[in-house]
Amino acid sequence: MHAHIVHAHPDPSSYNGALTQGARQSLLDIGYSTTVNDLYRTGFDPVERATHYRDRADAEAFAALREQRHAWENGTLPSEVKAEIEHLKRANLVILQFPLWWHGPPAILKGWMDRVFVNGGLYTSRKRYDTGHFRGTRAIVSVTTGAPERAFGLGSRGGDFQTMLWPIQYSLHYMGFSVLPPFISFGVQGHGYRYEDDASLHKRLERNLSAWRSYLGALDAAEPIPFPSWGDWDDDGRAIAAPDR
Ligand SMILES: Cc1cc2nc3c(=O)[nH]c(=O)nc-3n(C[C@H](O)[C@H](O)[C@H](O)COP(=O)(O)O)c2cc1C
Question: Going from the N-terminus, what domains does the chain have, and what CATH number goes with each?
Fold first, then answer.
């Protein structure tokens, strides 16, 4: 079994760094091999643009979907994208580790999705959702917040996690991944607003790290998040039955 961790935090010594290292160790302990792509360390360029493509389908106008498909078909994808796809293909489990920045993932991770989920190769009109390329591969979003747990929920100050994680988790589902429940580390308040004293913060974050390691140690108990799929839509893509929420 192999796990690939995509780490989207600028400082490896941060709490996000500790979660990535904790995940790696827990997975090694239960017999996984692991790879980590620390996007800041490797200098991943998250901006999809013409200069990434040396052999263009159209040298005049840049259409990302067309150039991705062309590069896939001709074996001319950028080397960092090719390498990442190889890691993803090898993985039975993919973890996205990031801090919540403006109610979503940092730009570097959004751009990783823009560039690595290659049109015409990793997804096509027929190869998506439950017929997606990565069906059978599990994915987990592990996210840290500055605000405390009590501040989150529909209408609450921090926002609603189902809404904030929907774009990233639904995109994973689009690519065919089985998305397991997210692991949310609340109230990581090192340098932002403070809601508790140092001792209690430290203790809580240590406990949280253990909870993350326990989650990964018992992955078989985790049920994927239910998302709608082809059988739930009519020919126009409309929901046949009204969703629960
Ligand atoms: C640009 C930026 C935006 C942020 N936006 C949010 C936010 O929307 N909600 C929140 O709870 N915390 C927010 N934070 C706080 C971070 O989530 C928090 O600092 C991080 O999770 C702590 O983990 P770390 O110590 O590993 O960096 C933001 C921080 C930055 C730098």
Answer: 2-232 (3.40.50.360)
